[in-house]
Amino acid sequence: MHTFLLNWFTRYAFVVGVLRERGVASRGRILEVGSGSFGLGAFIDRTVVGVDGDFDAERHPLLLPVRGHAGQLPFRDGSFEVVVSLDLIEHVPRERRAEVMAEMFRLSSSFLIMGCPVGEVAERCDRAFAAWLKRAGKEVPWWLSEHFERGVPTEHEIVSALRSIPSVGDVEVFPNENAAVHMAAIVADHTPEVLEVLMPSLNEHCDEWLRLCSEASFGECYRQFFVVQRSE
C-alpha cells in the first residue's frame, strides 16, 4: 500500500485530466521536475522521469529518478513530449523564476504543464495553515517556510515570464483547488489519525479520488495551472 497524501490528488487530478484529454497519458516521454520520491507515475500507471535534488531510499517504482537542478536540467532540447512541474516555482528565488520556467519549457517538444500556489488567496491559506500548526504544537515544514521567505508568485509574474520565452504559443490559465478544500486536505495530511483512515481508500480507489478532486476547482482557488503550448 502506497503512502498517498490527500493534497497530491488535488494537484495531480488536473495533470491527469490534461494528459488523457490530449492523448499523451500512455505515450511519449514525460518529465516531472521536482517530482520528489513519489511523482506522477503513480497516478497514470506508467513510468515517468523525475528530476529532484534527492530521493528517498523507498521511492515509487514507476519513478525513474534523475538527480538534478531545475535551473540546469541534464537533457537535450525537446527530449520529452510533456514536461510537468507542480508546486516548485514558488520555491525558486524570485529573480531566477523566469530562467527556470524557460529551462523546463526547453525540454518539451509539445507542451509544459506548471502548477503552483498563486497570489493573495494562497498567501492567506498559508498563513492560516501556519497558525493551525502553531495551535497544534507542530513545526512549520520547510516548504511552507520557503513560501513565506520567497513569496508565492502572482499570475501576472508567471504569464509574463512564460510569454517572453521563444517558441511559446498559447498560455492557458486554469484555477485549481478551492481554498477551503485545500485547507481541509493539508490539515488532513498533517493529522496521522485521519491519514490512517483515508489510506486504504486512496490506494484502492485512486481513479475515483482523482475524479472527485478534479471537481474541486471552484470559487477562490489556492493554486493555478499554466498549460504552455509550443508554437508551430
pLDDT averaged residue by residue:
95
Beta content comes to 15-25%
Low-confidence segments, given as residue ranges, are none
CATH topology description: Rossmann fold
The 3D shape can be described as: globular
Order of helices and strands: HEHEEEHEHHHEHHHE
Radius of gyration computed on alpha carbons: 17 Å
What is the rounded distance between the termini?
43 Å
Q: Determine the CATH superfamily.
A: Vaccinia Virus protein VP39
Helical content band: 40-55%
**Tally of separate domains:** 1
The CATH class, by name, is Alpha Beta
Which structural class best describes the helix and strand composition? Answer: alpha/beta
Number of helices: 9
CATH architecture: 3-Layer(aba) Sandwich
Instruction: Let me know the number of strands.
Output: 7
Going across the biggest sheet, name each strand in turn: 3-2-1-4-5-7-6
Instruction: Describe the largest sheet.
Output: 7 strands, mixed
Structure report:
- The protein is α/β, with parallel strands linked by helices and 232 residues long.
- The chain has one domain: Rossmann fold (3-Layer(aba) Sandwich), CATH 3.40.50.150.
- The chain is built from 9 helices and 7 strands.
- The protein has helices spanning 6-21, 41-44, 97-106, 119-135, 142-150, 155-163, 179-189, 192-204, 206-214; strands at 30-33, 48-52, 63-67, 80-86, 108-117, 168-178, 221-230.
- It has a 7-stranded mixed β-sheet, with helices on both faces.
- α1 packs across α9 (206-214) and α4 (119-135) packs parallel to α7 (179-189).
- The longest helix is centred in the middle third of the chain and has 17 residues, at 119-135.
- The mean pLDDT is 95.
